[in-house]
Amino acid sequence: MKNKLQQQNTETFLTLRLWTVDEYYRMVETGILDSQERVELVEGQVIRMAAKGIAHVISVRPTQKLLEKLLGKQVLVWTQDPIQLNNRVVPK
Question: To bridge 32 with a disulfide, which of 19, 27, 49, 66 should be the other Cys (CB 3.0-4.6 Å)?
Answer without folding.
Answer: 27
